[in-house]
Design brief:
46% helix; alpha+beta; globular; 14% strand; seven-stranded antiparallel sheet
């Protein structure tokens, strides 16, 4: 049975553990911190004792319940209710694609911004949804009952899947079924030390209410990404409508702040952090450092260069790949920051110290003797994964449209199409025709890159190198394939299928045939190792939970978490980054760098009204524990007033994938005061300002103006 440690006893356990072996160099004397695994607390095990001991703050179950029900999850991001009438706020970059989606002919809402001056003008977003976490149940015993009767990794994976499906079906029915918008997610916490079933109510009538111009939401562009000080107005308002087409009435929401925050104020960020590997072993981290992360970063770097080169060749077509480039530039910095953290010997030494403490705790407990060999088993799996490094680099993100040739993706399906009949063939035909083409010049670059990766990692003289390249340079092979294949575009593919002229000797199909044996062998071996790794991690998770209980938060799983922090600047390039910035800084960047820079301003911002207060705080930084997926997360104060929206980290905070060091990193938020100031004086969004201030719903601007006059 696991022990439930308080925060204080955990601190003692981690900092007083005896040395594990003799220290050969100073780094072996590095000690683990009590919260190296972070402060992403779950709502099923809220940190009540920790908050009392750390901040002298007493919060009850009702406080956590309101926080949980006010927070929301949207595709890839977080959000929250901010009025009793279904008004939702999130980041602009979280809804950027949806703003473009609802633009009508002749409109460019992404660049020009949008505001619905009346409720009738709020625009429905097809295929979009928000999810509210309405219940959480501990289903650990139900899952373990299935797992403990299984012996092999494959059997346990199947048993885990069966248990998950049974829990899903039971809870979905119990809470009202699909017709009530119920969806269930069984979340593995502590790598399988604990299983929680999250019951969501999904709302599918979501409408766009207001969004600033892209230039404000993404102010500073890639140059400012993962940096601070920042000056971005990264917000968007949505509204959830009920099944009868009226705004959703909810008693759970975060009122908009009047006072804002000051330096050293306590805040909470509530959202859905995507994924961390803070519970990974040192062997896993070393594999990430040496193989996975640098290979991914190099692939991203080269795709960015390809897209930028294409854009320089054809500036008119550059807009078509703008969002793709934004995403890759964001990933480039993210992986660069992760790699810098993994390359830091102090980080690895601190993680090794935590692992030694954990190992000792297992050795000291006879009931955990069966877990002692897991560290060596995990190291062996990582060694085998290293042996697959060449294949990993060659086939990295093979089916990802941002990384891969459209023609090669079609060839994969086309091979199956030629061998299929009847309905299966019709389904494959639809898949083939649904793959969009890259512009020809970009397609040539992407296919060349894939062939270059095969040459780089395997070698031109390897079996696969000879089969694919046949002694030619990758760019020559790519050009030949693209000029002779029937799969060059949607149109040529459709023509070949309709005229039955697609043949196995098609050059694209022949290229895939040359790649496929090595690719298939890698996929099989990698899947086996991943299953073994997951099983070992699950066993270590159970051991960790037995040792530490819930005193240590689990890794992020894109499930709802609450994290605490204080508003605080930090030492920065020989100076001090302030706790918050203001609109003066935004205009300073515009006038310093000019209209042709990433710090350009839209026309309506160039001559703000006299009532616009440029001293209003715009962005602020805190020590809260956030990561990707936390974009759009509400930042609230002790009274659960919304004081900001999380939208980024600084570059030093990217190491949080592997360890939480609040002294090194900061999360970055849009200040609620800046959003209100912009809504009021720049966008004249009076009905939204009035709704935030009064909690009343206004149909039109005239209604809001009349209420303000009264």
């Amino acid at each position: 049975m696991y022990q439930r440690f308080s925060f204080t006893s955990l601190l003692v356990l981690l900092l007083t553990a005896p040395a594990f072996g003799q220290a050969a160099d100073p780094l072996t004397n590095v000690e683990a911190g009590p919260l190296d695994n972070g402060r992403m607390w779950t709502f099923e095990n809220p940190p009540t004792d920790y908050l009392q001991e750390t901040y002298d703050l007493t919060v009850d179950e009702a406080w956590f319940e309101n926080a949980r029900l006010s927070a929301l999850r949207i595709p890839g991001c977080s959000a929250s209710f901010v009025s009793p009438h279904g008004l939702v706020v999130t980041n602009h970059h979280c809804a950027r694609g949806r703003v473009a989606q609802v633009s009508r002919e002749g409109e460019n809402l992404l660049d020009n911004g949008f505001y619905a001056a009346s409720m009738d003008e709020e625009r429905p977003i097809d295929g979009y949804y928000v999810e509210q976490l309405i219940a959480i149940e501990d289903v650990t015993e139900a899952v373990y009952a299935q797992l403990d009767d299984s012996s092999t990794a494959e059997e346990r994976a199947a048993a885990r899947q069966a248990a998950t499906e049974a829990v899903d079906a039971d809870l979905t029915e119990r809470f009202g079924g699909d017709e009530a918008g119920i969806s269930v997610q069984v979340v593995s916490l502590y790598n399988g030390g604990l299983y929680s079933a999250y019951v969501f109510r999904r709302y599918t009538d979501v409408r766009l209410v207001a969004a600033p111009e892209l230039q404000l939401g993404y102010f500073g562009g890639d140059a400012d990404n993962f940096t601070y000080p920042r000056f971005a107005l990264d917000f968007t308002f949505l509204r959830v409508y009920d099944t009868d087409g009226t705004p959703l009435e909810t008693e759970h929401y975060f009122p908009w702040t009047d006072a804002g925050v000051e330096e050293d104020d306590l805040i909470f960020v509530i959202g859905n952090p995507g994924s961390t590997t803070r519970l990974a072993t040192v062997a896993q981290l070393e594999y990430l450092r040496d193989i996975q992360v640098p290979y991914i970063k190099r692939a991203i770097d080269e795709r960015i260069a390809a897209i930028q080169g294409f854009a320089e060749e054809d500036p008119e077509a550059a807009g078509d790949v703008r969002n793709q480039l934004f995403g890759l530039l964001n990933s480039q910095k993210a992986y660069g920051g992760r790699l810098a953290g993994l390359d830091d010997p102090y980080i690895i030494a601190r993680r090794a110290a935590a692992e030694r403490n954990f190992h000792q705790a297992i050795d000291a407990n006879p009931d955990l003797a069966g877990y002692a060999g897991l560290f060596d088993a995990m190291a062996d799996v990582q060694a085998q994964k290293r042996d697959l490094g060449d294949a990993f680099g060659s086939f990295l993100l093979f089916g990802n449209p941002n990384f891969s040739s459209s023609v090669l993706r079609r060839a994969i399906i086309a091979r199956r199409y030629l061998a299929a009949t009847g309905e299966e063939q019709e389904e494959l035909k639809a898949q083939l025709l649904s793959i969009p083409s890259h512009p020809v010049a970009l397609e040539r670059r992407l296919l060349t890159l894939r062939l270059q990766e095969i040459e780089r990692y395997f070698g031109a003289d390897s079996e696969i190198g000879q089969a694919v390249l046949k002694g030619y340079e990758p760019h020559i092979v790519a050009e030949t394939v693209l000029t002779t294949t029937s799969l060059a575009s949607e149109a040529t593919t459709d023509l070949a299928l309709s005229q039955n002229t697609l043949r196995p000797d098609d050059p694209a199909l022949q290229t895939w045939e040359a790649i496929m044996p090595t690719f298939a062998a890698f996929q099989e071996a990698n899947a086996t190792l991943n299953a073994e790794e997951q099983e070992i991690a699950s066993q270590l998770g159970r051991a960790r939970f037995d040792v530490y209980g819930t005193a240590v938060p689990p890794d992020a799983t894109f499930s709802l978490r609450i994290t605490d922090g204080v508003v605080k600047g930090y030492d920065y390039n020989g100076t001090i980054a302030p706790p918050y910035t203001n609109f003066y800084g935004l205009y300073d960047h515009y006038y310093s760098y000019g209209a042709d820079s990433e710090w350009n301003l839209p026309e309506r911002w160039l001559n703000p009204p006299p009532t616009f207060d440029m001293s209003t705080p715009l962005n602020f930084a805190s020590t809260a524990d956030t990561i990707g997926g936390n974009s759009g997360s509400p930042a609230i104060n002790r009274d659960q007033e919304l004081v900001g929206l999380n939208f980024d980290r600084n570059i030093e905070g990217l190491v949080r994938d592997y360890i939480f060091l609040p002294e090194r990193g900061r999360n970055v938020m849009v200040d609620a005061r800046a959003i209100r100031e912009a809504l009021d004086d720049i966008y004249d969004a009076d009905r939204i300002v009035q709704e935030l201030e009064t909690g009343q719903l206004f149909q039109t601007e005239a209604d809001a103006d009349a209420a303000a006059t009264d």
